[in-house]
Amino acid sequence: MSLWRLVTxxxxxxxxxxxxxxxxxxxxxAAITGSLVVGASVTGxxxxxxxxxxxxxxxxxxxxxxxxxxxxxxLQRSCAQAGVRRVVPVLLAEGAVAxxxxxxTLPRVTVIGIDRDFAALFDGARLPVPDEEQAVVSQALARDxxxxxxxxxxxxxxLANAPRFGTLFSPRDRERTLRSTRLxxxxxxxxxxxGAFRLGANPATPRNxxxxxxxxxxxxxxxxxxxxxxxxSTPGTNPLPALTQALRDQxxxxxxxxxLAVHPERRALTLRSEELLLSEDTVQAAREAAAAHGxxxxxxxxxxxxxxxxxxxxxRRAAYALLAAxxxxxxxxxxxxxxxxxxxxxxxxxxxxxxxxxxxxxxxxELTTLVPSWEGAYREETxxxxxxxxVALEGAGADPTL
Length: 402
Fold this sequence. Notes:
Elements: H1 3-13, H2 15-54, E1 59-68, H3 71-78, E2 84-99, E3 105-114, E4 134-138, H4 139-145, E5 152-158, H5 174-177, E6 178-189, E7 208-212, H6 213-219, E8 225-233, H7 240-250, E9 258-263, E10 268-273, H8 280-292, E11 300-310, E12 313-326, E13 334-337, E14 346-350, H9 351-357, E15 364-372, E16 378-391
Parallel strand pairs: 3-7, 4-6, 14-16
Antiparallel strand pairs: 1-8, 2-3, 2-5, 2-8, 4-7, 5-6, 9-10, 11-12, 11-15, 13-16, 15-16
Helix pairs in contact: 3-7
């Protein structure tokens, strides 16, 4: 029997099975093709929505801290030849908004501080810049709260100059962490366009509340500040390298949340951060800058001990003492000990604490600190050290920065 005859006979005998297999393949092909078409359509819709929310914004800088709003005009002047049309500063914050009666409250509302240039980033946008104590709200926000133009709403903002929640030094009282303000709804923006502005990729409809940037900056305790820059560029240009270089040249220490304290008596400088800690990149840049000027950089970390006590005499203790971890020893004058480098479990005490505790060189010391957890609570940890030196309260030993 030839191969062709075998195939034709098998097809006639198993024709029912063949029909089922062919139908299954057709259905599977249709499903896969349909999924690809729908997926491409959804991707395209999401892309169109994201671009519509951006308007003419081609590049954006969003910082984790506040900087000078005047940085925008400096970058615009520096990068005009590279294709930058405008650089618009905005101030982004998050707040909770309620209607005047307090019947409805929306958490995590995006509060956007804008200037008049913001509306120019959207084609045909009618976005009036509200006066102080006024707000322009998106249609979604107005619908969820049930407010209309001319009505009032309540805005709760977290103050920017308060220490971060979850840290040992953060205040807990409302007056120092929140500001509540009554605002009048100046306008309700239609769906889409400027009212749906969002820099993130979240496809959900944003609940935006627009206020004057200058007013919002003062309300947050940061006059003249912004934390985002929106860049519109000429089509066909790529100003990103020029913007990056201009930002390096124009940004100051204050724009980066840093400051320098001068200590002429010690011929030293202290680099401080608005954040709880200096970042690794900042520390590395500081070391390189110091080395370039022939100086030596030494890192210092400050923490708080709730209790210091001598195990041999538990009745004598010191409460709330500052701990200074120093990378390189300062030029201390020792009243006792101090001749050897500190080991892992060694400490130096200044004369004040040593007198309070009655501590001498060689005495054991128990140190209790509070350690934060992810839940926001604090647990106590106790560590044992040995006193290796008593530092005089003069010179570097009386320096509050150590």
